[in-house]
Write a structure and sequence with these properties.
The protein contains 22 helices and 20 strands. The protein is of the alpha+beta class.
């Protein structure tokens, strides 16, 4: 007779034994296959994988002057597993001139997987970054005393000149978001944060290398593994040549000292940015090394907003510089002819609406209207365009046609410059006004847009591009600050022409009007006997003092430079915009200023425009 109790026990014991074996097998599988902890431990004992960082690409101005280069710096790395229990932290802290609390805080940050998700006690972790040559030389003498501590040679950016901070940008340590976005980066790596450094990060950064070193049982380096057969050398980043002329840039920043605003100059033949001044500005050398965070915080807290690149982020009423685009539209659409003259009795008067204007001859055709900057002429032009029912089915149809012309000239949308942060400005359309006025509006309702006021907003870059488009008689290249990339072509966005909707003959008349403005109109201060300047002033209305604006180009034929100057609260266009623009064009075309012009430059440098209730 079978002993069923004994039979049950045998199954139970057997089941337990099998379960134990299965658990061990699963655990061994997890440890050896699924987990790399033991592999890392073994590898870290046998090998040291030393990352070799590439040299970041240098940046030059259009004439080959070095603007940004690299200088050596050193990062202190720690392998926690090697340092634990063996590192004399008191001497280590004394050598690095840090406190015990600093050491604890840094170690806590290294081990915090939320802040450092790639942490492993077997691999090198960043303890301190960017030691200078001087600090490193002291530390290097005692390095042998600190087990688990290694030195990683790096490079940090250095800026040759105190100019073009908004264009060049800067480099700083990667954020967690940077690491998650691109697996190229590890904690402690550097990345471009602003300007060209950010936009061309992939071209500038190069490719990392790695050196695999063999260690003995005591962790001592025995040499290269397999004689370096598995090593990978770093590939240097590509050098960039900018369209910026550093001499022109320095003059622009000198002229805009103690003022708010922008100067943008373009080469009409290529779209290259010759200078981009945003004021107030700062010295780019403030944003390097271990003081970057502190200085960035100070700049960010400054109420004058020196970190703001007003050239591409400032959105302003263009004032009378916008009249050139209106003339092009009215002529091309047949709203006016070259002989059409409108009356101006100190302004536009119609159905109880008055838009003021200064005294000049009347009635006046388009060339004279541009020369004298007649408000009435362009108000009449828009009024007749919006109200033309023979040509347009409705006020909305007319408005959207007008909008299409503006967009074709580079307004209302980002131009696509190779810098981060560009704003689009504002060009209203019919839907905009239908919502604002519940469908009941006409040309008189929106008359102020004809003179660059009202809802119209442009960036200084867009105003400068308008000048380049007129200089080219109807087309432009998308503005770009990088002229050439080492071993790589530019994006075709920057090498193809963009044509506007306006007629070529209409551009000829606008050029004639802008030349007349310099010879006998509102831009006489820009006249230069050595070359023919074409210009247009702007006095943009503001809640406080008006903004002073100038847009122009030179020479009239085969132009070399198109420029926009925007001085906030600078008054009439002729007060600041025109003379500053004239000095900038002279510097670029002649390569220097005359003695008289140098005196003018000093005068404008010393002119302050104060802001706020304390002044």
């Amino acid at each position: 007779m079978k002993d069923f109790e004994l039979e049950k026990r045998r199954y139970v014991v057997g089941g337990i034994a099998i379960a134990i074996v299965v658990v061990y097998i699963i655990r061994l599988f997890v440890l050896q296959i699924m987990s790399d902890d033991y592999k890392k431990n073994a590898d870290s004992n046998a090998f040291l994988k030393k990352v070799e960082f590439p040299s970041r690409g240098a940046i030059y101005d259009r004439n080959g002057k070095l603007m940004v280069y690299n200088q050596p710096a050193y990062d202190i790395m720690i392998v926690v597993n090697e340092a634990r229990g063996r590192l004399d932290t008191t001497e280590f802290c004394r050598t690095l001139n840090i406190t015990r609390d600093d050491f604890i805080r840094r170690m806590d940050a290294i081990k915090d997987r939320n802040r450092n998700p790639g942490y492993s006690r077997f691999t090198q972790q960043l303890f301190m970054s960017q030691l200078s040559d001087k600090d490193f030389s002291i530390f290097q003498e005692r390095l042998f005393r600190f087990p688990g501590i290694y030195v990683q040679k790096r490079s940090i950016r250095q800026y040759q000149y105190p100019y073009a901070a908004h264009v060049l940008g800067d480099v700083a340590e990667v954020s967690q978001a940077d690491i998650e976005t691109d697996d190229y980066y590890q904690p402690g790596d550097y990345i471009g944060k602003l300007g060209v450094e950010k936009k061309y990060e992939r071209e500038l950064r190069g490719e990392k290398g790695v050196q695999i070193l063999l260690r003995d049982a005591h962790g001592r380096i025995q040499g290269s593994y397999q004689n370096g057969a598995l090593d990978r050398r770093p590939v240097a980043g590509r050098n960039l040549t900018l369209g910026i002329d550093v001499n022109l840039q320095s003059l622009g920043e000198y002229l805009m000292a103690n003022k708010k605003g922008s100067i943008v100059a373009l080469d009409p033949a290529t779209g290259e940015v010759l200078c981009m001044v945003s004021s107030p500005t700062y010295d780019p050398r403030m944003m390097i090394g271990r003081q970057r965070s502190k200085n960035h915080a100070l700049l960010a807290a400054n109420e004058q907003k020196p970190l703001l690149n007003r050239s591409i982020m400032g959105q302003y009423p263009p004032g009378s510089t916008f009249k050139t685009s209106q003339a092009l539209t009215f002529l091309s659409e047949g709203i006016v002819t070259t002989g059409t003259a409108f009356p101006c009795s100190h302004g536009f008067y119609h159905r109880g609406l008055h838009v003021g204007c200064h005294g000049h001859a009347s009635p006046i055709p388009v060339v004279g209207a541009l020369s004298t900057s007649c408000n009435a002429y362009f108000c009449w032009g828009l009024y007749y365009m919006i109200g033309n029912r023979k040509k347009y089915d409705s006020v909305q149809d007319a408005m959207n046609t007008w909008r299409d012309y503006m967009v074709s000239m580079g307004f209302g949308y980002k131009l696509g410059i190779d810098l981060p942060g560009e704003k689009r400005g504002l060009i209203p359309n019919a839907n905009f006004y239908d919502k604002a006025y519940k469908g009941s509006w006409n040309g008189l309702t929106i008359i102020s847009i004809s003179i660059g006021q009202g809802e119209v907003n442009l960036t200084p870059l867009q105003i400068a591009n308008l000048g380049a488009t007129i200089a080219n008689r109807g087309y432009y290249y998308v503005p770009h600050v990088v002229k050439a990339i080492q071993g790589q072509p530019l994006d075709t966005l920057y090498t193809r022409r963009h044509y506007t909707m306006a007629k070529a003959w209409a551009y000829d008349k606008v050029v004639e009007g802008m030349r007349s403005a310099v010879e006998r109109g509102t831009c006489r201060a820009a006249n230069n006997p050595q070359y023919a300047v074409c210009g247009k002033t702007g006095t943009a209305q503001n809640r406080g003092q008006d903004h002073s604006v100038f847009m122009g180009f030179a020479p009239m034929d085969k132009p070399k430079i198109a420029i926009a100057v925007y001085v906030e609260n600078g008054g009439f266009g002729a007060d600041f915009g025109v003379p500053i623009g004239a000095l900038m064009m002279e510097q670029y075309i002649n390569g220097k200023l005359s003695e008289d012009s140098k005196k003018k430059a000093d005068d404008f440098h010393n002119r302050h425009i104060y802001y706020g209730s304390n002044h």
